[in-house]
Amino acid sequence: MQDYNIKVQFEKETLSLSCTENQDIISAANTNGIDLPYSCCSGVCTSCASKILEGYVDKEDAMGLDDDLKEKGFALLCVTYPKSDLIVVMGDQVEDDLYNDQFGNY
Ligand code: FES
Fold this sequence. Notes:
The chain is α+β, with helices and mostly antiparallel strands. Helices cover 23% and strands 32% of the residues. The protein contains 3 helices and 7 strands, in the order ββαββαβββα. The strands form 2 sheets. It has a 5-stranded mixed sheet with strand order 2-1-7-3-5. A two-stranded antiparallel sheet has the order 4-6. The longest helix is centred in the last third of the chain and has 12 residues. It is globular and about 40 Å long.
């Protein structure tokens, strides 16, 4: 089974973890003892919102994102499966960007 290296930029740190191709990134982080934000673990709530900076993923199960947001690089890590090594960013700024993209700036 293919094992990928995932770097997650979160709260001014870069965290490194390994994840197999059939494991979601939040589960892999938990297995690696890394605490990332999540809630529903079903691709709905967007607590685990992230942006893929480098690499390829399968994120088809992200019900909380429309196709436009997926094309912009947003992903929900609880239902995101790596297809290559990755660099990912998550945290407040990504959540704000996602919210503004989805609902507009007010
Ligand atoms: S934890 Fe809810 S969408 Fe990922």
